[in-house]
Write a structure and sequence with these properties.
The chain is an alpha/beta fold and 372 residues long. The protein is built from 15 helices and 15 strands.
Length: 372
């Protein structure tokens, strides 16, 4: 199979879909790899590293899309990239289709087969290709939230850990999954007073057993969210429903009950955001203010630490990428029902129920797609 890796073109996206190591592994398996020139530069991988691994460097993304059987990326294909996708081509990347009807329609119209990192599962019910970036985003959230809280940036001017005689920032983390756990761990490590809210009692017991004393837990009822929001200096939104639009957990009306200059960090913005007032921003212009509350809603947070993120993502995606290349997508998905969960679009049909429900589009089952 010919595997293609174009340079990411989403604003301030510095990650790359294939590391030289992953390219070398694919070549060892007998495949060809073509990489757009400077695709890895933002992550610290120059063209020479890919050439040393056996890859071929192409001058343009158009060459990659025109000749590759499988396109491996990081972020969802942008409008210009979607025009280059073709019938029968395999796309393997993050998609986040539920809040993005235009992308969904374009992928359906292209006739390509699109497998989304964020909906591939594992035998434990986890999301193995989302987890590395969730870990990165969770660890970044308190860091960027602390920056947002600085007075020069419009925030309350509160130091996360306080100082002797002055109390620490109060941080509420909504969601106790991978993002929320890492966010709470880092925020607590910065000295903040942290409370994690979740609806799963077993998850809260786990967090209490493992991290007891580092941060508190509470049940994520509407009443508890509202009460803690009034006290919080920072709220980190870390709620995910796989493949579906994120639920809105803080309404605009609630902003008036919060402390002026408090910070909202929405890690769920790729799935539409979990605050009613969230809108996607970029690393170049990351924050904005609504009703006196500062919002940080960068849609590709891990891109800020591109090298760490690229290597972590590559470690997770490489086995799946090799399976898809070695066997073809149908056989790979027949052999691995967890990989089949990643199938979102095939041959002009949507194949992921949560996206269809969110966008009002008819869906066929992935099992039916395998037979087509």
């Amino acid at each position: 199979m010919r595997i293609g890796c174009p340079k990411e073109i989403k604003p301030q996206e510095f990650r790359v879909g294939l590391t030289p190591n992953a390219a070398g592994e694919a070549i060892t398996h007998g495949h060809e790899v073509i990489v757009e020139t400077n695709a890895g530069a933002g992550s610290g991988f120059d063209d020479a590293a890919y050439i040393a691994a056996g890859a071929v460097i192409c001058d343009t993304a158009a060459e990659v899309f025109a000749t590759a059987d499988m396109i491996v990326k990081v972020k969802e294909p942008q409008a210009a990239e979607r025009k280059m996708l073709r019938e029968g081509q395999l796309l393997f990347t993050y998609l986040h289709l539920a809040p993005d009807p235009e992308q969904t329609k374009d992928l359906i119209a292209s006739g390509c087969t699109a497998i989304a990192y964020e909906t591939v599962t594992d035998r434990n019910g986890g999301l193995p290709l989302l987890a590395p970036m969730s870990e990165v985003a969770g660890r970044l959230a308190p860091q960027v939230g602390a920056w947002t809280l600085q007075k020069a940036n419009g925030g309350r001017g509160v130091l996360m850990g306080g100082v002797p005689g002055v109390g620490p920032a109060r941080v509420m983390v909504i969601g106790g999954g991978v993002v929320g756990t890492h966010a709470a761990k880092i925020a607590a490590g910065m000295g903040a007073d942290v409370t994690v809210l979740d609806r799963s009692l077993p998850r809260m017991r786990y967090l209490d057993d493992v991290f007891g004393g580092q941060f508190k837990t509470q049940y994520a009822s509407a009443g508890n969210v509202a009460e803690l929001a009034e006290q919080a200096d920072m709220i980190i939104g870390a709620v995910l429903i796989p493949g579906a639009a994120a639920p809105k957990l803080i309404t605009r009306a609630q902003l008036s009950t919060m402390k002026p200059g408090a910070a909202l960090v929405d890690v769920a913005i790729d799935q539409g955001g979990c605050f009613e007032t969230s809108k996607a921003t970029t690393h170049k212009d990351p924050i904005y203010e609504v009703d006196g509350i500062m919002h940080y809603c960068v849609a590709n947070m891990p891109g800020a630490v591109a090298r760490t993120s690229t290597i972590a993502l590559g470690n997770a995606t490489m086995p799946f990428m090799l399976d898809l290349a070695d066997k073809g997508w149908k056989q790979a998905c027949q052999d691995d029902p967890h990989l089949l969960e990643g199938l979102n679009v095939h041959a002009g049909k949507l194949t992921y129920y949560a996206v269809g429900k969110a966008l009002g589009i008819d869906v066929i089952s992935p099992q039916l797609a395998l037979k087509s």
